[in-house]
Design goal:
Blueprint: E1 4-7, H1 13-19, H2 21-30, E2 35-39, H3 46-53, E3 57-67, H4 75-88, E4 92-98, H5 108-116, E5 121-125, H6 130-133, H7 135-147, E6 153-157, H8 160-163, H9 168-175, E7 179-184, E8 186-189, E9 194-197, H10 206-212, E10 219-221, H11 230-242
Parallel strand pairs: 1-2, 1-10, 2-3, 3-4, 4-5, 5-6, 6-7, 7-10
Antiparallel strand pairs: 8-9
């Protein structure tokens, strides 16, 4: 059975803003989650919240990209992510590549140096942008990183491929060996956009995708968890993902 996390964004920005991530982290653990993913964009007061969440999270999700607009390595953003993960006691930091471009290759040495000074594992996520979430962009980045002597794992977000018009199964075939962590997310198409939904309600072939992805990596729920009895809903969904 899989190790199952809950990304705290699954409870909704408004609700998390009302109660705080600690409240929802404790609920997720009570519902049977092995751990949680703390979301940087949902922190109201990082200085007090991160220490309070210490020991509950194994992943910190930074909302910042590794490369800032213009293609320069944002060492400060990476440093903030590493510091937050360290405070949490989380072993993994999740970030997107941001605005990595041809002119960025020379700054990979800076990334290598910064990562050599921490035990936090950086995992690259496919986000919902073509520049940082499409297969060509990610393949270009990973190949460049390998050439610079940097071997990085990946957070594979099942749903985000649809936002950039790509097939998640083809992406899994190309990137599967790098996957260390899976964001479980179903999707449905509305007239103007894709939206995240529970796996069982997804319009995408998620069962086929799981057959391609590594089976022995942690999986995180990153789709809406809502209902009158939120503990029961979370418990049901955690058990569902664990049994896949």
């Amino acid at each position: 059975m899989s190790t199952v996390l809950v990304s705290l964004s699954s409870f909704g920005a408004a609700e998390v803003g009302r109660h705080g991530q600690l409240w929802y982290a404790q609920l997720a653990k009570s519902a049977g989650a092995d751990s949680v993913e703390v979301r940087g964009e949902m922190l109201r007061d990082a200085a007090t919240e991160l220490p309070a969440l210490a020991g509950l999270a194994s992943v910190y999700s930074s909302p910042e990209g590794l490369w800032a607009e213009g293609g320069w390595l944002d060492s400060a953003a990476l440093g903030r992510g590493i510091a937050a993960a360290t405070t949490l006691g989380a072993k993994r930091l999740k970030m997107s590549i941001g605005d990595f471009r041809a002119s960025s290759h020379g700054s990979l040495w800076g990334l290598k140096v910064q990562l050599s000074e921490t035990r936090i594992e950086l995992l690259i996520e496919n986000d919902q942008t073509v520049s940082a979430g499409s297969l060509p962009a990610l393949m270009t980045f990973f190949n460049a990183a390998e050439s610079a002597g940097i071997s990085l794992g990946m957070t594979f977000d099942m749903g985000n491929w649809h936002y950039v018009g790509e097939c998640p199964i083809e992406a899994a075939k190309a990137l599967g060996k790098r996957v260390r962590y899976v964001h479980c997310k179903g999707v449905q198409r509305l007239p103007a956009k894709w939206v995240a939904v529970p796996l069982a309600e997804s319009a995408a072939p998620w069962r086929a995708l799981f057959r391609v992805l590594p089976a022995d990596v942690p999986r995180a729920i990153e789709y809406p968890l809502t209902g009158d009895d939120l503990l029961a809903v979370a418990r049901e969904q955690i058990a569902f993902v664990r049994a896949l």
